[in-house]
Amino acid sequence: MKKLLVITVLVALLALSAESFRLPRQAPEEQGTLTKLTDTVRSYYDSAVDTASGYLESIKNMQLKEKAKILYTDTTTAMSTYWDIAHDQLYHILSSQH
Please, which residues have CB within 8 angstroms of residue 39's CB and are 6 or more apart in sequence? Predict the structure, then answer.
């Protein structure tokens, strides 16, 4: 029991003495012009990278390759139809002259 009391008193004294050794807070140091400039440039760069990454993700989500393939197929189908019509018209114009 005496050992427990001695240990408790020593821990209490240690805690009180440790509290008195606290260092006062220091005011934050002012940043230099170069540091401010570097931080500003870095924030603009990070913002530009984030924006570009967002655009790339939105383009990937649109599945543009598949849409381009479908557009190419539809366009070539329509153009071949119009080419066939123009070919027939030209053929009938030229064949009726003979």
Answer: 31
Residue written as tokens 């002012």?
A: 30
Q: What is the pLDDT of residues 4-59, one digit of tens each?
A: 778 887 777 666 665 555 666 666 667 788 888 888 889 888 888 888 888 888 77
CA 56-46-30 angle, to 5 degrees, is 170
Classified as helix, coil or strand, 22 is coil
Residue 19 CA to residue 25 CA, distance in Å, equals: 14
| CA distance linking residue 80 with residue 93, whole number of Å | 20
**pLDDT computed for residue 76 by the predictor:** 93
Contacts of 1 (CB under 8 A, 6+ apart): none
Q: What is the pLDDT of residue 79?
A: 93
